[in-house]
Amino acid sequence: MQRDGFTFIEILITMGILLMLTSVLLLYNRSGERQIILFKEKASVVGLILKAKSLSLNTLITNEPICGYGVHFETNSYLLFKERSTDCINSDRIYTVADSQELVEEYTLSSGLKFSPTGFQNILFMPPDPFVFFDGVFASGERLMTISNIDGSASVNLKINSSGQISQ
Q1: What pLDDT does 35 receive?
Q2: Residue 1 clears pLDDT 70, i.e. is over it
Q3: Which of 37, 79, 83, 127 has the highest CB neighbour count under 10 A?
Q4: Is-cis flag, bond preceding 130, omega within 30?
Q5: Which fold is adopted by the domain 36-167?
Q6: Chain segment 85-97, per-residue pLDDT in tens
């Protein structure tokens, strides 16, 4: 007499294989989700830097005493600021926390992300070209910025050169 069907051992082995494949898929999906969050934040930072560059060109047509626009970076936040001064040549060209009128917009990184030390905290664009300043000093070369998970398991890089161009 022949019975059709599966033995208990065959079912256990099949279930074990399915469990392993499911766990691998879930882990892969989780790391992909982290990368998507990093790329989304990178796009936001690039967008804000380009917005500061664009706004700085518009300062030539305003009556307000603005020398340029820039982006200030903290560990887990970044903000758009305007450099206010009647004497642009002798301004400090950095974000001043004490001057509340400099702040334009403030952004916070997604939880679990941070800016890694980059060698600069401020990038300022001053018209007419616009001129680029890193921490108040006229830009030379390029600067690297890294956005990473707090545990350092994943990261994305941005390079900003002395003309304000952004690359990876």
Answers
A1: 84
A2: no
A3: 83
A4: yes
A5: minor pseudopilin epsh fold (3.55.40)
A6: 888 888 899 998 8
| Sequence-ordered list of residues with C-beta below 8 angstroms from that of 29, at least 6 positions apart, any chain | none
* The two structure tokens encoding residue 89: 């040549």
Structure tokens at 136: 């108040």
Q: How confident is the model at residue 44 (pLDDT cuts 50, 70, 90)?
A: very high
Q: Measure the CA–CA gap between 93 and 91, rounded to whole angstroms.
A: 6
HEC profile of 107-165: EECCCCEEEECCCCCEEEEECCCCEEEECCEECCCEEEEEEEECCCCCEEEEEEECCCC
Please state, in angstroms and rounded to a whole number, the distance separating the CA atoms of residues 36 and 52.
24
- Decide if 83 contacts 69 (C-beta within 8 A): yes
Instruction: Please report, as a single letter, which amino acid is at residue 46.
Output: V
What is the mean predicted confidence (pLDDT) over 27-43? 82
CB distance 71 to 48 below 8 Å: yes
Kindly report whether the peptide bond that precedes residue 117 is cis, defined as omega within 30 degrees of 0.
no
